[in-house]
Amino acid sequence: METSLLSMVLQSLLALAAVLGLFALMIWGMKRFQLHTGGPAQRDFKVIQRIHIDNKNSIVEIRHRGAHYLLGLSPGGMTQLRIDDALAQPHEAEEVTPVEKDS
Fold this sequence. Notes:
Elements: H1 2-34, H2 40-43, E1 45-52, E2 58-64, E3 67-74, E4 77-84
């Protein structure tokens, strides 16, 4: 009877190891293929900082395509507080034409 108990425990441990191995393989595959799904425009999304006001409300600064967004997050939804797109469209260098002085 001890051999059957030992074999059942061993079989259960091997089945658990197989399930955990499949789970780890699935997570690895999802992470690997997630990097290749979005183009460069989708990867340019970064949370700069998050300020917790209380347990349910917070303010988040996000950068996406060069523009900075300030968002208010609450249980009722998301509110856009501010957009700073000065970095989104950089100013092109303007040509400076010299002005001649008449003397």
